[in-house]
Q: What sequence folds into this?
C-alpha cells in the first residue's frame, strides 16, 4: 500500500458533511496548509456543482419522482440515489424518500441499526436503507468524488490510501463508534475516529498558530460548546502542565442531545405561522418550508452583531399566482429573542434540571429528540455531572453554525457567568473559530499531531463501561437474582492500550450463545477496572448486550477471563480469553431493544 | 508532492546521459587530435627519435583512454548538481503554485460523460439550448423570475406588486451575485468627466456624440456598464428535455 500523501479530515455531520485535507508531510516550520475539498454534488436535476459542504441527506427516488438520468454523476451514470444539496431540497417535497439525520440513528439503541428502516415511516414497498448503509452512502459519495477529482491521474492518491480521520460526536458510545467504522469500511475507507469538540479545539489551535499558548494558561478549563444543525455536544478540556510543557486533556463529555439549529429555525417558522394564522392567512406545507428557509436567513441577519431590528419575511404565492398569493410579514428582533434566545438558551440556575420527557404509555419510535429544548439547562446538568468537583469553565470555545449568532454566544457567556456568583473572572471566549468548517479542518490538524510534533489532547474513552453480572447468592424464589455491574473499561482509557479484568473468571457454556449486559456511565470518572457497583440501575445507562458463542465441545463449561482493547481507531473491543489462550470476540448486539432509553 | 519525484528522478538520468555523451565526444576529439599531432611529428625529420625519447605515443594515445572513467565520474557528479538545482527550482515553483491553487491539476471536467464518446450534432445543439435556458431556470428556481414576468400586473395595485418584487429581487440578485458577480465596466461615478485612453475596447465602451480624430477622448460617463466578473454555472449532464424552465408541480 502506498504511503498516504494527504491527511483527510471528514466531518460526517448530522445535517452537513465537510471534507478538509492537508499534506501528510508538511514542510517543517511552516504552519499547516489545510484546504477544503469542495465536494461535487447534484444541486438540481442533472446539474452538478462543487460546494463547501455536502448535506448528509440521501434521497431514494423512484423513476417517477426523479428521472434516472437526472441523478447521473460524473463517476456513475445510474447511482439510483442522490446525496447532497439536491437530495435535501427535492427530499423536502418527498419526505417518504428522504433519509436524514442518519448519524443520529446510528446511536439509537431502540432500533436494529443494521436493518433497512430509513426513511423512517416510509410506507409501501419503498426502498430503504439501514442507518449504517445511509452513512456509507454519504461516505461513498465523498470517496468517489475524491477519487475522481484528486486521484484521476494517480491511483496512489485515492482516498482509501490516505490517512482518513472521521469525526464522531463526543457522546457516541462504543456501539455507535463501531457502526461508524463499519460504515466507513463499507465505503472502502480505513479511518481513525476523533471526537468533534476535540476537532474544533484542534482547529482553534491551528488557527491561532503559536499564539494559542498565550490565549490559554495552565489551570484553564475550556468548555467546547458545539451546537450543530441537529445535535448539541459539550466537552471539557483542561489545560495542565507536565515537565514545563502545556498539556491538554479532555476531561468530560456530554450525553447525546438531539436539539440543534434546525429545531430553532423550525420553532421560529411555527411561531410566525401562528401569527399569520391569527391574521387569517393559512400556509400550506410548501409555503411552510419556504417560511422555514426564510426564517433561517432572517435569524442569521438579526442575531449578528449590530444586526437590524427587524427583517421582512416574504413567502411568494405558489404557482403562477405569484403576486396575489404573496404573504409578507415582519420578523422583529424581539420575537427571535423570545423564541430562540430565551427558548433554547434560557437563563437558568446552576442546578437546573432539564425537564424529563413526558412518559406516555404509547410512544412513537423514531429519533428521541431532546424533550427539553433548553440547551443551557442541559449544559447545567452536564457541568454538574462531569465527574469530580470542578470549578466552572474559565473559557469557552463555540462551534457549529448556530453559534455564528453573536447574541447567542453572548447569552451562553452570561449564563455561565451567572453561575459563578460573582467569583472570579468572567468566562473568556476563545475567538477565531470557523463555526461551519472547523471540525473537518481540526480533524486534519489532529492527523498531523498524531504523526508527531504538535500538541495532542489526551482523551481516551469517553465513558466508563460495565458489564452486568449475577451475584453468586443462593436463589430466593420469586426474587430475581441480585445483579451487580463490573467496570471493564474505565473512563479515559487510552487508545491503543488493552487491559485485563484480573481476579474474575467466568464459566461459559460452550456451544450456547453467551450474553452480557453492557452498560455505561458518563459521570463515573474514578471507577477503575474491576470495580463492582451493586444496585446500578439508577447509576448506569444500558448500552446494549454483548454476545459471543464459544466453539468446542458443546455443553462443557470453560473458564474465561475478560480482556478489553481500546483500539487505535477509537473503538472498543471485548474478548473472552480461555485458559488455553483462545480468544472469542464479544460483539455488540445492535438489534432492537425493548427497554431502550 | 510525492507524484513529482518520479519525473524529477527521470530528469536526473536524462541529464546524466547527455553529459556522458558530451564527455565521450570530448575524449574522442582529444584522441583524434593527438593522432593528428603524432603523425605530424612522425613526418618531421627527427620526429621518430623525439617520440621514442619522450614516450609521446603513450602520452598522447594510450593515457587519454584512462580519462574516460574519470570523465564519467565527473559527469555523474555534475549531473547530480545540475539535477539538485533543477529540483529546487521546480519545487519552489510548485509550492508557490500549490499555495495559490489547490492541487486539482488532475481534475477532469465535472460534466464530462463517464465514457468519452463524441457527441452527436443533436446532442451538441441540445447542450447549447440547455446551457442558455439554464440561467432562466435558475432565476426561476431561486427568484421566481419566470412566474413574475408572466404575471398580469394590471390586476394588482402597486403595494401588492412591491411586496412580491422585494422577494423576487432578493432571490435573483443573490443568484446573479453568486454566479456572475456583475461589476461596472468603468469605475468612475456616472456624470463624471472621463478620459478614454488609446487602445480601448469598443465593445466594452460605447462612444456616442461627436467622435472625431483619435483617442484620447474626453467625455462624460453616462452609464457604468456591467461585466460578469465570474462565470460559475453548475455543470449539466442531464439527458432530460432542455426546454423545461420549471416543471409542473403536482401533489399526489
A:
Amino acid at each position: 500500500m502506498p504511503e498516504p500523501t494527504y491527511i483527510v479530515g471528514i466531518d460526517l455531520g448530522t445535517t452537513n458533511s465537510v471534507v478538509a485535507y492537508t499534506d501528510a508531510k508538511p514542510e517543517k516550520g511552516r504552519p499547516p496548509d489545510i484546504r477544503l475539498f469542495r465536494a461535487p454534488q447534484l444541486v438540481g436535476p442533472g446539474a452538478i456543482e462543487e460546494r463547501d459542504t455536502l448535506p448528509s441527506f440521501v434521497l431514494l427516488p423512484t423513476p417517477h419522482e426523479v428521472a434516472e438520468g437526472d441523478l447521473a454523476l460524473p463517476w456513475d451514470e445510474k447511482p439510483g440515489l442522490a446525496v447532497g444539496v439536491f437530495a435535501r431540497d427535492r427530499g423536502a417535497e418527498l419526505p417518504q424518500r428522504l433519509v436524514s439525520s442518519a448519524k443520529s440513528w446510528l446511536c439509537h439503541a431502540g432500533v436494529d441499526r443494521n436493518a433497512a428502516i430509513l426513511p423512517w415511516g416510509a410506507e409501501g414497498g419503498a426502498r430503504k436503507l439501514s442507518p449504517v448503509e445511509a452513512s456509507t452512502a454519504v461516505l461513498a459519495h465523498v470517496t468517489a468524488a475524491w477519487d475522481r477529482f484528486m486521484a484521476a491521474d494517480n491511483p496512489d492518491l485515492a482516498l482509501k490510501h490516505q490517512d482518513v480521520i472521521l469525526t464522531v460526536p463526543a457522546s457516541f458510545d462504543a456501539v455507535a463508534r463501531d457502526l461508524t467504522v463499519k460504515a466507513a469500511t463499507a465505503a472502502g475507507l480505513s479511518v481513525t475516529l476523533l471526537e468533534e469538540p476535540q476537532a474544533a479545539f484542534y482547529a482553534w489551535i491551528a488557527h491561532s498558530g503559536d499564539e494559542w499558548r498565550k490565549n490559554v494558561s495552565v489551570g484553564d478549563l475550556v468548555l467546547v460548546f458545539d451546537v450543530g444543525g441537529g445535535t448539541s455536544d459539550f466537552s471539557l478540556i483542561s489545560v495542565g502542565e507536565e515537565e514545563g510543557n502545556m498539556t491538554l486533556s479532555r476531561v468530560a463529555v456530554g450525553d447525546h442531545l438531539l436539539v440543534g439549529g434546525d429545531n430553532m429555525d423550525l420553532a421560529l417558522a411555527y411561531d410566525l405561522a401562528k401569527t399569520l394564522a391569527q391574521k387569517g392567512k393559512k400556509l400550506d406545507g410548501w409555503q411552510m418550508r419556504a417560511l422555514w428557509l426564510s426564517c433561517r436567513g432572517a435569524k442569521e441577519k438579526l442575531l449578528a452583531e449590530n444586526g437590524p431590528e427587524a427583517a421582512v419575511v416574504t413567502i411568494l404565492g405558489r404557482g403562477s399566482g405569484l403576486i396575489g398569493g404573496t404573504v409578507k410579514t415582519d420578523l422583529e428582533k424581539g420575537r427571535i429573542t423570545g423564541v430562540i434566545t430565551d427558548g433554547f438558551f434560557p437563563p437558568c440556575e446552576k442546578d437546573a434540571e432539564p425537564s424529563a420527557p413526558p412518559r406516555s404509555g404509547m410512544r412513537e419510535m423514531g429519533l428521541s429528540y431532546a424533550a427539553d429544548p433548553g440547551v443551557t439547562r442541559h449544559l447545567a446538568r452536564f457541568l454538574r455531572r462531569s465527574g469530580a468537583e470542578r470549578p466552572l469553565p474559565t473559557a469557552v470555545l463555540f462551534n457549529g453554525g448556530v453559534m455564528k449568532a453573536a447574541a447567542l454566544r453572548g447569552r451562553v457567556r452570561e449564563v455561565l457567568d451567572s453561575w459563578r456568583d460573582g467569583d472570579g473572572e468572567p468566562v473568556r471566549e476563545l475567538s477565531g473559530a470557523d463555526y461551519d468548517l472547523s471540525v473537518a479542518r481540526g480533524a486534519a490538524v489532529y492527523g498531523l499531531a498524531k504523526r508527531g510534533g504538535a500538541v495532542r489532547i489526551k482523551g481516551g474513552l469517553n465513558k466508563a463501561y460495565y458489564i452486568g453480572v449475577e451475584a453468586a447468592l443462593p436463589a430466593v424464589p420469586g426474587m430475581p437474582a441480585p445483579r451487580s455491574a463490573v467496570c471493564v473499561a474505565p473512563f479515559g482509557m487510552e487508545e491503543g492500550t488493552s487491559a485485563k479484568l484480573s481476579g474474575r473468571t467466568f464459566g461459559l457454556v460452550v456451544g450456547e450463545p453467551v450474553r452480557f449486559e453492557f452498560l455505561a456511565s458518563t459521570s463515573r470518572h474514578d471507577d477503575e477496572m474491576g470495580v463492582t457497583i451493586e444496585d446500578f440501575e439508577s447509576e448506569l445507562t444500558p448500552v446494549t448486550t454483548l454476545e459471543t458463542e464459544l466453539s468446542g465441545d458443546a455443553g462443557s463449561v470453560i473458564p474465561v477471563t475478560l480482556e478489553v482493547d481500546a483500539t487505535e481507531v477509537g473503538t472498543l473491543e471485548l474478548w473472552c480469553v480461555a485458559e488455553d489462550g483462545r480468544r472469542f470476540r464479544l460483539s455488540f448486539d445492535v438489534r432492537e431493544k425493548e427497554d431502550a432509553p | 508532492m510525492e507524484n513529482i519525484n518520479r519525473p524529477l528522478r527521470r530528469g536526473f538520468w536524462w541529464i546524466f546521459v547527455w553529459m556522458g555523451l558530451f564527455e565521450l565526444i570530448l575524449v574522442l576529439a582529444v584522441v583524434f587530435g593527438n593522432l593528428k599531432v603524432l603523425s605530424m611529428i612522425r613526418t618531421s625529420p627527427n620526429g621518430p627519435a623525439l617520440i621514442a625519447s619522450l614516450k609521446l605515443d603513450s602520452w598522447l594515445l594510450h593515457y587519454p583512454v584512462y580519462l574516460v572513467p574519470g570523465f564519467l565520474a565527473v559527469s555523474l557528479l555534475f549531473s547530480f548538481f545540475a539535477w539538485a538545482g533543477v529540483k529546487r527550482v521546480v519545487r519552489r515553483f510548485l509550492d508557490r503554485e500549490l499555495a495559490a491553487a489547490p492541487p486539482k491539476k488532475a481534475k477532469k471536467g465535472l460534466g464530462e460523460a463517464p465514457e468519452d464518446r463524441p457527441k452527436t450534432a443533436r446532442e451538441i445543439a441540445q447542450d447549447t439550448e440547455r446551457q442558455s435556458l439554464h440561467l432562466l431556470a435558475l432565476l426561476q428556481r431561486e427568484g421566481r423570475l419566470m412566474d413574475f414576468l408572466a404575471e398580469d400586473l394590471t390586476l394588482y395595485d402597486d403595494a401588492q406588486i412591491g411586496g412580491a418584487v422585494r422577494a423576487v429581487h432578493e432571490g435573483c440578485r443573490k443568484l446573479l451575485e453568486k454566479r456572475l458577480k456583475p461589476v461596472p465596466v468603468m469605475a468612475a461615478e456616472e456624470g463624471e468627466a472621463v478620459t478614454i485612453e488609446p487602445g480601448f475596447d469598443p465593445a466594452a465602451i460605447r462612444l456616442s456624440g461627436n467622435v472625431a480624430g483619435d483617442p484620447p477622448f474626453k467625455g462624460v460617463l453616462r452609464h457604468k456598464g456591467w461585466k460578469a466578473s465570474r462565470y460559475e454555472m453548475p455543470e449539466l449532464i442531464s439527458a432530460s428535455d432542455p426546454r423545461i424552465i420549471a416543471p409542473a408541480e403536482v401533489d399526489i
Remarks:
- Chain A has four domains: 6-193, 215-259+360-456, 261-344, 464-588.
- Residues 179 and 303 of chain A are 38 Å apart (CA to CA).
- Chain A touches chain B through 47 residues (CB under 8 Å).
